């Protein structure tokens, strides 16, 4: 017997989010029914809604959910009804990368999370009027008052922490933090540069401030975001509308270059500037995602000094350990995530989309 709930449905690529009654399937053995309390809005949601990815539409998106477990499938052991959970990506749990602690690089990551729109066995989790909808987005499709969630997307969290304050941990925040902690791993006295001061970039700034790095540079085109970056731990800021980014980074590093760079903008021109600004044996982490097929030219000889360029998905995080650690930092005030969040009632999802698209809101969070 199905459960009726209200969801934000995208009818076709480029269409707005429309609230509608939908039906959820019964939880499978490894699924849970979650009552949503809050859900972050991410640029990935907007990219799929625009038709930029082959996700089946009409469908229900949302992949930074947080809520309370209401029911669990027969084989679920990690959570129980009443538990507070943050929802993140799903994975198979059986491939070498999952076994090796790198589920963000699961062999079946793309169909399970981003483009499949259904369970691994081909069945649908959400329908409307008897017709299946695209769902199972990141194992959750959390733009809904209730969501049917894969067990591997569920992370049990401290019930004392308000869920609206930690919903973005499931994607954007763990991506920015993981870029610094899991890939760059700054050493004492390191210079870390963050290109782009959106939600992911500012999360990287906050993460860098919790490491032995002594020079943390934020680069953006919006003065207000650069000011916020300083308040969150950046030691230097560069306004790309006022000065040459390569020259500024060269000045700040005394010509040595950056030990680590996080590129969040998705601009190939910015990525190239970042690679050129690396120190010998420096690493640039590619987080920003331009359209599929985008290529960037590089000076090959410039790479021979040991420079590394590393692509990143979801912070290369093992969510069951990583997200609870972030929740503790939020609770203790050491990861001031609330500075990024603007809340909106679920019914005002289109206003949240507009504010995010225009830069008015850094991290919109929908509340239920």
Structure described in brief:
The protein is of the alpha/beta class and about 375 residues long.
Coarse structural class = alpha/beta
Shape: globular
Please state the CA-atom Rg, rounded to the nearest Å. 20 Å
Compute the number of strand runs: 18
* Largest sheet composition: 7 strands, mixed
Q: Beta-strand level of the residues, as a percent range?
A: 25-35%
> Whole-Å distance between the termini?
24 Å
Description:
This protein is an alpha/beta fold and 368 residues long. It has helices spanning 43-49, 96-99, 109-115, 172-184, 199-208, 223-232, 245-252, 268-276, 319-331, 349-358, and strands spanning 3-10, 17-24, 31-40, 59-60, 65-72, 84-87, 126-128, 131-132, 146-150, 154-156, 191-195, 215-220, 236-239, 258-263, 278-286, 308-311, 341-345, 363-367. Strands 3, 5, 6, 9, 10, 17 and 18 form a 7-stranded mixed beta sheet that branches. The chain has a 6-stranded parallel beta sheet with strand order 13-12-11-14-15-16, sandwiched between helices. It has a 5-stranded antiparallel beta sheet with strand order 4-1-2-7-8, with no helix packed on it. Helix 4 packs across helix 5 (199-208). The two termini are 24 Å apart. The mean pLDDT is 96.
């Amino acid at each position: 017997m199905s459960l009726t709930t209200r969801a934000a449905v995208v009818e076709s690529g480029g269409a707005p989010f429309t609230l509608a009654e939908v039906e959820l399937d019964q939880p499978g053995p490894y699924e849970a029914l979650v009552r949503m309390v809050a859900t972050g809005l991410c640029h990935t949601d907007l990219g799929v809604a625009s038709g930029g990815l082959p996700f089946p539409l009409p469908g229900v998106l949302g992949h930074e959910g947080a809520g309370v477990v209401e029911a669990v499938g027969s084989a679920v052991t990690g959570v129980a009804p009443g538990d507070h959970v943050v929802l993140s990506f799903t994975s198979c749990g059986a491939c070498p990368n999952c076994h090796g602690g790198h589920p963000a690089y699961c062999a079946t990551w793309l169909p399970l999370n981003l483009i499949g729109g259904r369970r691994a066995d081909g069945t649908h989790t959400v329908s409307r009027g008897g017709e299946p909808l695209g769902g199972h987005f990141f194992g959750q499709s959390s733009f809904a008052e209730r969501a049917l969630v894969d067990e591997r997307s569920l992370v049990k969290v401290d019930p004392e922490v308000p869920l609206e304050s930690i919903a973005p941990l499931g994607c954007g925040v763990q991506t920015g933090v993981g870029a610094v902690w899991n890939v760059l791993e700054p050493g004492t006295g390191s210079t870390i540069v963050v290109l782009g001061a959106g939600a992911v970039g500012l999360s990287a700034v906050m993460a860098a401030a919790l490491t032995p790095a002594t020079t943390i540079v934020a680069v953006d085109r919006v003065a207000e975001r650069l000011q916020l970056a300083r308040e969150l731990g950046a030691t230097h800021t560069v306004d790309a509308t006022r000065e040459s980014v390569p020259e500024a980074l060269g000045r700040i590093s005394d010509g040595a270059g950056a030990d680590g760079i996080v590129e969040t903008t998705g601009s190939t021109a910015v990525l190239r500037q970042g690679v050129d600004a690396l120190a010998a044996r420096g690493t640039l982490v590619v987080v920003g995602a331009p359209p599929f097929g985008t290529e960037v030219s590089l000076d090959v000889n410039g790479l021979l000094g040991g420079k590394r360029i590393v692509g990143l998905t979801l912070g290369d995080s093992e969510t069951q350990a990583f997200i609870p650690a972030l929740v503790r930092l939020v609770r203790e005030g050491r990861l001031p995530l609330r500075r990024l969040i603007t809340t909106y009632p679920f019914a005002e999802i289109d206003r949240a989309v507009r504010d995010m698209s225009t830069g008015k809101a850094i991290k919109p969070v929908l509340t239920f």
